Amino acid sequence: MRRLLVTGLLTALLLVGCRGQRSEAPPIHPQLNMDFQERFNAQGYNPLFEDKATTRKPPTGTVARGLLRDSTEIYRGRGSDGEYVERIPIAVNRKVLERGQKKYETFCTPCHGKSGKGNGVIMRGDYGYTPASSYHNERLRQVTDGYMYDVIANGVRNMPSYAQQIPVRDRWAIVAYVRALQRSQNTEVESLPESVRARIEQETGVTIGAVKDTTGAGPKGPVSD
After folding, report:
1. What is the span of the domain harbouring residue 109?
2. Is residue 214 part of a domain?
3. Residues 77 and 145 sit within 8 Å (Cβ to Cβ)
4. Number of structural domains, the chain?
5. How far is residue 161's CA from residue 171's CA, in Å, rounded to a whole number?
6. pLDDT grade, residue 216 (50/70/90)?
């Protein structure tokens, strides 16, 4: 009889737990597991300190872990003299370029286009935006890598800062990829590796060595679009 009673009570409890509808009542919490504890919210009032502020000012001369940023070249794109660095201050390899391509296509393509000509989808629509610059004009081919990094980090004219969306290393990766885009559209054919020139000759049917302009120099200009 006792066993029957216990079984009936357990069944009743199980059925109550499966009532099949939402409830606004708080759940029974027999073990708190530190889910509820006294605390102060960030930026909130705190009577424990003289200034009544919860958020405390770091001790003088201290830097949060990972935020030292002791290299002005990497974190600001400038040397110790305050001038923009000429070249990217991190090692550039295929992995960096692929990362730069991914981030470029995410953040830059809408305005500047996939080839960097300033013809992104936003520029092609009648939205009233100021035309985006082409990376292939002479001015942007001549600017320093540090300047490009600074534009990504701080913005320029109508372009906003992307510092919140793009981490430091990814900014340099984008700069590296933009330089690759520029070279792809403004490279002397003779400067290409022999294997690439052979492929171009095969695809175009033109013998590169036989093409000369009036100055005697080889063909120059976009080798791909």
Report:
1. 72-188
2. no
3. yes
4. 1
5. 11
6. very low
Q: Is residue 55 part of a domain?
A: no
pLDDT tens for 174-206 read 999 999 999 888 877 777 788 888 888 888 887
Measured over the CA atoms of residue 196, residue 197, residue 198 and residue 200, the dihedral's sign is positive
In this structure, is residue 12 part of a structural domain? Answer: no
- 151: domain CATH number is 1.10.760.10
Instruction: Give the C-alpha separation, 220 to 225, whole Å.
Output: 14
Are the C-beta atoms of residues 134 and 117 closer than 8 Å to each other?
yes
Nearest to 162 by CA among 98, 110, 90: 110
Query: Is the CB of residue 98 less than 8 Å from the CB of residue 78?
Result: no
Q: What is the pLDDT of residue 16?
A: 64
| Residue that has been written with the tokens 């980090």 in this structure | 153
pLDDT digits (tens, 9 = 90+) for 146-182: 999 999 999 988 899 999 999 999 999 999 999 999 9
